[in-house]
């Protein structure tokens, strides 16, 4: 084993791991001496400070002890003294569906590089389940937490969760949402900018009458509506309240297809009162809308243009491939993990915010308005 420069793990922590491995491998007995500081410096090509930090950590954990002028010695195994693996928790509304496997892949890749293990929890968007997942993870001794909270638009009213997280001695990183006045780190797409970009894109195609289908109890949905509305108004477009259709996390469950019902409201309007383009909260909703619109005998993009969000695999393979805003997915997961592991390794819990700006991938669901 050797010290690597290409890992994000501090060198003293790498040396600590190596020494723990060697103690176990060589079967040291109580009172056996470990290599001296000069030997470790020469063997692993590290500084004296790195060696001392690694040994200090071994001393703090009761693995070794120092005798002035004689060296450092193995303390021997004691019951319960085995080193626990570095363990962090990840709680998201989904783990196996839609864009979440890509997000989790980013987290897992970063965890592997830094030698952390993950406990994954799927809240299903349920705050009670989320709470029990958190308690279970804390009992298992996690050193940090990444969480995309259930019903994030109402996070501040979830005082039980926030109070518990604020009392923790471990770092917490929120993912896919942002609150400026909460004392945590956040990694999120810039959803206000995403809404602005969507509105600008539709209006650049010539659409002045636009509608939106959004999830109203999660932060991304609320912020996208905010940015969308802002640009439509500033550019003289029209976004009537009857063209703003919202659904909740509880309605967005398997088999419920909330966008179908909302698009039915769009279809019930006389043609002259319909928007010519629709911006959907995500690609799944956009596909539900696309299917309902085509079932009603309308064409996409001939009669109405459709814009999705997430640039998921569903956008690629829809019956009419969807133009979609890009969710950073894997990058989001990696950035969240980076922030968490840096906070664990450095001990610096100062809140940090990373916002990732979305782009657009153009496909076949967009066109100029026909009326």
TrEMBL record:
Residues 9-77 form the HTH gntR-type domain. One of its GO terms (molecular function) is DNA-binding transcription factor activity. It holds the Pfam family Peripla_BP_3. CDD domains: PBP1_AraR (cd01541), WHTH_GntR (cd07377). It comes from the Bacteria. PANTHER family: HTH-TYPE TRANSCRIPTIONAL REPRESSOR PURR-RELATED, LACI-RELATED TRANSCRIPTIONAL REPRESSOR. This is Transcriptional repressor.
